[in-house]
Amino acid sequence: MSFSPCLRRMSLGLLGAIALSLGLAAPAASAEVVGRPNETPEQRDARMKWWREARFGLFIHWGVYAVPAGTYNGQQIGGIGEWIMNRGKIPVAEYKAFARQFNPVRYDPDAWVRLAKEAGMKYIVITSKHHDGFALFDSKATDWDVVDATPYGKDVLAPLAEACRKHGLRLGFYYSQAQDWNHPGGAAAGGHWDPAQDGDMDAYLRNIAVPQVREILSNYGKLSVLWWDTPTDMTKERAEMLLPLLDLQPGIITNNRLGGGYAGDLSTPEQRIPATGTPGRDWETCMTMNGTWGYKSYDHNWKPTETLIRNLVDIASKGGNYLLNVGPTALGEIPPPSVERLQEIGKWMKVNGDSIYATTASPFSRLAWGRCTKKVGDERTTLYLHVFEWPADGKLLVPGLRNNVRRARLLANDERLDATNTPEGVVIDVPAKPLDPIDTVIVLRVRGELDIEKVLPTQADDGTMALPAPLAETHSEGGSSPQVEDIGGKASIGYWTNDRAWLSWQFKIARPGTFDVLAEIATTASASKFEIAVAGEKLAAQAPNTGDYRKFETVMLGRVRIANAGDCELTIKPVRGQWSPINLRSIVLKPAQ
Ligand code: H79
């Protein structure tokens, strides 16, 4: 990689700031309407079945913003590419002129769908209209669409719908209902910088949004998802202008971004993976592969395939779906780094897809070596153990599993492995090396009901309590969440760019006392501030500059007293506004001398 990890993380920081949004990530309040009105739970389950089994979809952000591709008047405009008109305060007439260069002659919808299918994705959601108001279809409500405003002059959604049918993928449309910077009245919610945007939001909804949503729900055959975006200023009355249109597609699934008190079928954490799943509520993490949704020519911040695969696994282990984005160019090309990554994910999925599709959330709390997904049958449960960190001693402990098991197998080659019940849980004898360093999957079949005792990590013989990165729960109150990644050969928390994101560990203390709090940190920031809280005590702490995002140093942060034996939680939270990204490999509580 040509850019430093530091840069990589810094620009993700920007992304974190971007994703802080207007309640997008807020959990559904209980007063909200979930699902479709007048639907039984059984009907709802039937409607959601394919989606719950799919686990993996492709998001496509494509529009006129791919023409400036992040640069306006010779200046690189910060933030996400599809927001360039807003961030650059580009006048309506000037922005509209970009459409004359939107000529995707290399657009090959069949190839796009095949790429998604080969990646193991089961559905595609494409921006039929983003906040710039530009429609990728021939709208009768406006000339601001691909047919009337571009030299290409053809509807691009119809051939995509056709290709999806041909290859058996489900299709969904993203539609930005409350923001539209090019039609009068549509820019009330997202800012306003050109008198051409003046107008009334209700009139915009009546004249543009309502007819367009009717068009996309009517003209492309069966549609599986309608993905609303940004509920800003969407009152109940406004939402109800659009809601009845869903009857045009009876089985359709919608997200929680319509607004007006309608929670839809799923929640939509953006650019982050929730710490735990949300039982009873379907959810989907949408995420970019670099730092932008819409194409930016100079964003080379690509997440490694390892991160993308482990994200998919992490999400599946929490019962959610992964909607992974590509931003095609104005010529109609998916950027090669995205293609490569999708192909690499596809290779893994071909071998390991059984451990993803139609699985449900892990029955374990945090696992030090990776993740677990499961399939529950009538008489037995299949556990898929996703091993990210291969055990050096050849023994994989499945902590707290009490069911009797004697055998496991490697998913990739069916090799049988011995398994033994021990007081700590089931121990599986594994080969010296993983089959896939990203994630080797071990299949464990368990008869009868799962019997799992929650076991928390506990102190070593000398009283030391180690809290390594993979055992941390990540939390984010809006914005991106930190992620565990391989840094210098060891699992560490990276991408911690968001000062509203924090970590926690749960563990058990058998021998209380006074402990030195040590942290293994790498950062190039000089005064990143955070707070550690454990057993009712708080430590204000500051990370030292280690000179490199890959150079870890163990630092003593202070002393805490844990007075009582029992279950404990330690949290580490950034001090808002005084935080710069740090990478964190572990926290260790060491009995004070
Ligand atoms: O389509 C993608 C984003 O464009 C869209 N949702 C995903 C799927 C999205 N719209 N709004 N937001 C996400 C959140 C709002 C971010 C903002 Fe900002 C932060 C608006 C103002 C501050 C980013 C930074 C845009 C302008 C400045």
Using only CA atoms, what is the Rg?
25 Å
Ligand inventory reads: ligand H79
Order the strands across the largest sheet as they lie in space: 8-7-6-5-2-12-11-10
Domain module tally: 3
CATH superfamily of the largest domain: Glycosidases
- CATH architecture group name of the largest domain: Alpha-Beta Barrel
Q: Beta-sheet strand percentage?
A: 25-35%
Number of helices: 11
- Poorly predicted runs: 1-30
Under CATH at level 1, the class of the largest domain stands as: Alpha Beta
Span from first to last CA? 44 Å
Structure report:
The protein folds into three domains: about 5-15 and about 60-330, TIM Barrel (Alpha-Beta Barrel), CATH 3.20.20; about 370-445, Immunoglobulin-like; about 465-590, Jelly Rolls (Sandwich), CATH 2.60.120. The chain is built from eleven helices and 30 strands. A hairpin with a 3-residue loop joins strand 13 and strand 14. Helix 5 packs across helix 7 and helix 5 (about 110-120) packs across helix 11 (about 335-350).
Key features?
TIM Barrel, 20% helix, Immunoglobulin-like, alpha/beta, Jelly Rolls, seven-stranded antiparallel beta sheet, 3 domains, binds ligand H79, single chain, 29% strand, 593 residues, eight-stranded parallel beta sheet, disordered N terminus
Brief overview:
With 593 residues, the protein is an alpha/beta fold. It has eleven helices and 30 strands. The model is unreliable at 1-30 (pLDDT under 50).
